[in-house]
Amino acid sequence: MSDKPIQLCSPNISGNEWQYVKECLDTGWVSSVGSYVDKFEAMMAERCGTEFAVATTNGTSALHISLLLSGVQPGDEILTSALTFIAPANAIRYAGAFPVFVDADADYWQFDVEKATQFLRTQCERKNGELRNKATGRIVRAILPIDALGHPSPIKPILELAAEYGLVVIQDSTEGLGARYEDAPVGGLAPIACFSFNGNKILTTGGGGMITTNNKNFAMRAKHLTTQAKCAGEEYIHDEIGYNYRLTNVQAAIGCAQMEQLDKFVAAKRYAAKRYTDFLSVFSGVQPMKEASNAFSTFWMFTALFDETQTKRSSREIMKLLAKDGIQSRPLWQPLHLSPAHKNNPTAGSCEVSERLYKRGLSLP
Ligand SMILES: *Cc1c(COP(=O)(O)O)cnc(C)c1O
Description:
Blueprint: H1 17-27, H2 35-48, E1 52-56, H3 59-69, E2 77-81, H4 87-94, E3 98-102, H5 113-123, E4 124-127, E5 130-133, E6 140-144, H6 155-165, E7 168-172, E8 180-181, E9 184-185, E10 192-196, E11 209-213, H7 216-226, H8 249-259, H9 262-280, E12 286-288, E13 295-296, E14 303-306, H10 308-311, H11 315-324, E15 330-331, H12 352-360, E16 361-363
Parallel strand pairs: 2-3, 2-6, 6-7, 7-10
Antiparallel strand pairs: 1-11, 4-5, 8-9, 8-13, 10-11, 12-14, 14-16, 15-16
């Protein structure tokens, strides 16, 4: 038993965070307006190669607003990853829409474009200019892929598929901040992308989120909706139902300091991933996560599969053994089509890969 437990992940606060936060406190600019909010948005936009970035209270609210921007109506369906943290599916429900869960691909564990294609070709029909799921009768409106575990989604084929069927694409790049697809940074690849800066993400603001886009209307509407839809001017006039989803200047100050260190954080994750991969690859029945040749992954949370038939111990038994030695590890997310919260929603074919990854996967510190 080691004296100090090894945590799965802990925030790295070693840059200018104190200095920038102190400046907020000293000047009184602590709330949702301030230079650090503008600066953090500008840094994110630059990083993602987008013209605009709009800060939000967290990643879930960024997703909620993004769905509203993309014209999602109550009762619509959104294709999204089955294997992910629950936030995207919840945000879809907040917008009154329903998720259609798409399996992960067996190689890189990302949104399976082939299964999505198959679903759109065989399970949906176009009628009066609308694309409907034949089984539910609902309109299919958008695709929301997640950059699972920091590996970029196969965004090019996703965008092609979306164009063919007239769907909007929102990329949840939370875990992929700093990742690249065909040498282009995530965040600027889809019409809208979302990020979270929760404590366990690549970088953190305590809690926070961001929407990145090149679409000026989206950006302006995102600002509007996140500030209670208040119209410009001195009068308190609100032209629709808005939300209080703004990030505070104090959080943004932390975000600016964290952004200065992003490359360092990603390099450290990639270094750890390489060490784990080299070490684990010699064991039969252990499959470390991989990186596609056209991808640059952040390896946000390094994960390996343990095939019980060969390793003799299940991933959960290994988790308990590691815990005894003070090493924290954790299972992958329960695939959302199995989640009590979402199990009544449709899937695009089988989600057997997600189920296998869930059973065998273990994320390591
Ligand atoms: C953490 C996470 C979120 C949610 O972000 P919050 O800031 O906690 O609301 C959304 N999507 C993905 C993929 C995440 O990992």
